[in-house]
Amino acid sequence: MPDDAASPPSADPAATPQKPRWSVVICCANAEATLPAALKSARFADEVVVVDSGSADRTEAIARELADVYRLEPWRGYSGQKKFGAELAAHDWVLVLDGDEEVSPELAAQVQALSAAELDGLDVLYVRRRNWVMGQAVRAWWPDWQSRLIHRGRVSWPDEALHEDRKPTDPGRTRRLTGHLEHKRAGPPDFADYFSGRRMDERLLMVARQMHARGKRVGFFGLWLRPAAAFFKFFILKRGFLDGAFGLLIAQKAATSVQLKYAALWAVQRGLANREHAGHREHPENQEA
After folding, report:
1. Can you give the pLDDT at residue 204?
2. Measured between alpha carbons, how far is 195 from 251 in angstroms, rounded to an integer?
3. Three-state DSSP class for 36?
4. Which terminus of the chain faces fewer neighbouring Cβ atoms within 10 Å, N or C?
5. For 236, which DSSP code?
6. Is the domain of 261 the same as that of 214?
7. How many distinct structural domains can be found in the chain?
């Protein structure tokens, strides 16, 4: 065999595809019971950022120990707080979470498997969220699609009073993943997962005023039929009846939430809710309204 046989060419680092880099942004307050699980689930990311809107418990200590970046920032609203966190991130691809949410192992693996070439054609990746109430997963709220995996430079942030969303620059530049988020799985089960009068009171007029500003109105038939339709949707169409008494409670919760929301709209459109809302002092928990 000749001595001058050609050796294999060395790999060109410039020709090696770069692995996409991800930041996870967690917005929270008073989340000591759930934040450790959220942070543990985000370990797959290249960076984890915690934005705290003002905690009186051990949230700050937990975040400083387990996250890469901790920032105390007064509450900016549902969209505003997450947008602020995304702007703090070191990387353009961001997964936004609340402090009571976790990334499932399946979703973490899917995110890590995405290539730069795939992501070049995407603005938003939608993921399902499994919601837990009083320690039980809610069948009727599944799949609860969320726009949480985003390229921060290729989305818009609509100003929503309650359920924040991120919109792609082009509706065709999206994908749905099969992995999911867990919402309120961690932490001790409590009746407040099902109902908190304070949280509901804080939100009703915010939502009603935004609906009114967008031209929404309600009358007799809307107040009568909408709650019944919500109950039918979540108990029958979404098969809540398969969960027995728990499914019944979830459907009743949906009907009550709809009734109160439209009652607030009815009051706003008649000038009966003129007192300015005090606004949030802390990061609110996600509730299905």
Report:
1. 87
2. 13
3. helix
4. N
5. I
6. yes
7. 2
Task: For the chain, report the end-to-end CA distance as a whole number of angstroms.
Answer: 77
- Judge if 235 and 97 occupy the same domain: no
For 256, the domain range is 195-269
SS3 128: strand
Distance CA(133)–CA(96), nearest Å, equals 21
Q: For 106-152, what is each residue's pLDDT tens digit? A: 999 999 999 999 999 999 999 999 999 999 999 999 999 999 999 99
Residue 1: band (very low, low, confident or very high) from pLDDT cuts 50, 70, 90? very low
- Checking 270-276 for CB contacts under 8 A at 24+ apart, the result is 273/205, 273/208, 273/209
User: Per-residue pLDDT for 209 more than 70?
Assistant: yes
Q: Are strands 174-183 and 146-151 parallel, antiparallel or unpaired?
A: unpaired
Q: What is the pLDDT at residue 165?
A: 86
Has residue 41 been placed in a domain? Answer: yes
In contact, 136 and 190? CB cutoff 8 Å: no
Query: For residues 72 and 288, what is the distance between their CA atoms, to the nearest angstrom?
Result: 27
Residue 157 to residue 10: CA distance in whole angstroms: 46
Phi, psi at 169, each rounded to 5°: -65, -30
Average pLDDT of the chain?
89
> Do residues 177 and 202 share a domain?
no
DSSP 163-191: S---EESSTTSEEEEEEEEEES-SS---G
Bigger pLDDT: 124 or 3? 124
Q: Which residue has the tokens 């979470």?
A: 97
Of the pLDDT bands very low, low, confident and very high (cuts 50, 70, 90), residue 16 is low
**Cα–Cα dist 89/224, whole Å:** 46
Q: Tell me: do 78 and 163 sit in the same domain.
A: yes
**C-beta separation of 283 from 28 below 8 A:** yes
Co-location of 141 and 227 in the same domain: no
CATH of the domain at 38: 3.90.550.10
